[in-house]
Design a protein that fits this description.
The protein is α+β, with helices and mostly antiparallel strands and 245 residues long. The protein has helices spanning 3-19, 37-44, 58-65, 99-102, 107-110, 136-153, 228-242, and strands at residues 22-24, 30-32, 77-79, 92-93, 115-123, 126-133, 157-162, 165-176, 180-189, 196-205, 208-215.
């Protein structure tokens, strides 16, 4: 669901609250109909809205990555699997199974799972998101499959070609635990320029998969390389475990 559609839905819910305050009797005149606090809350609250609370705040991001992160005021995307990223379409690529390491929240990674809802946002080039699956067993099975895929991609390269340019993604330092897998991705292109390095991490808690992508900076004030993305994921996993649904 796009932000525009989210706004329209919010307006629709407000309209419903007004309209249900009255009902027509037999002669067409309006008669008051009680609207309880419980029914009003049900009408205005999406069953998926809790998922966006999993995303870290600006202060949490700043602590996790070791530098001040400015967060915009726009709400995060909250939608369905169709709202996940699809960076492969329209490109020529090799070793596409490794796209799940290179790029966060790719639709391809979740195509074989039953997804209830997704949410994500990018703040100061840091991307964080969560995918709510149909059950804890589905989430664990998908995490295991993705962890295996990440380990298989360790030490390999993923190449894409688009717009006449070729991009080479070098995948390295894949590490995994029972709940988190992480990697470092270096990107170079045929257009030249300095290589870009990012940290990637993916984790599981209950019936959710969470992901983070954090660019590696040269600032001496940042955390040690390889820890920022896993810190962001740990923050989100804690929020999943404590979320009130």
């Amino acid at each position: 669901m796009t932000r525009t559609l989210t706004a329209l839905c919010a307006l629709a819910f407000s309209a419903v609250g007004v309209l249900t305050g009255c009902a027509s009797d037999i002669d067409g005149s309006a008669t008051p109909t009680p609207v309880t606090a419980e029914s009003a809350t049900t009408e205005r609250t999406s069953p998926n809205s809790w998922l966006s609370t999993v995303l870290p705040t600006g202060d949490e991001l700043s602590k996790d990555v070791g530098r001040r992160v400015r967060v915009d005021t726009l709400p995060p995307l909250l939608g369905t699997i169709d709202d996940l990223r699809d960076t492969v379409s329209g490109t020529e690529d090799t070793n596409s199974s490794c796209i799940t390491v290179v790029s966060p929240l790719e639709r391809q990674a979740y195509a074989d799972s039953t997804v209830r809802a997704v949410t994500y946002s990018t703040q100061s080039t840091i991307t964080a998101g969560a995918v709510w699956l149909s059950s804890e067993s589905d989430a664990r099975a998908l995490f295991t499959a993705l962890s295996d895929r990440w380990r298989q991609c360790d030490g390999t390269s993923y190449t894409t070609s688009t717009g006449g340019l070729q991009f080479d993604h070098q995948i390295a330092e894949v590490k995994s635990t029972n709940d988190v897998v992480s990697a470092i991705v270096g990107v170079t292109s045929t257009s030249g320029g300095a290589p870009v390095r990012t940290e990637r991490a993916l984790g599981v808690a209950r019936d959710c998969i969470v992901e983070a992508e954090v660019p590696v900076t040269a600032s001496p004030d940042t955390l040690d390389q390889g820890t920022a993305a896993t810190n962001v994921v740990a923050t989100m996993l804690a929020r999943v475990n404590s979320a009130q649904r």
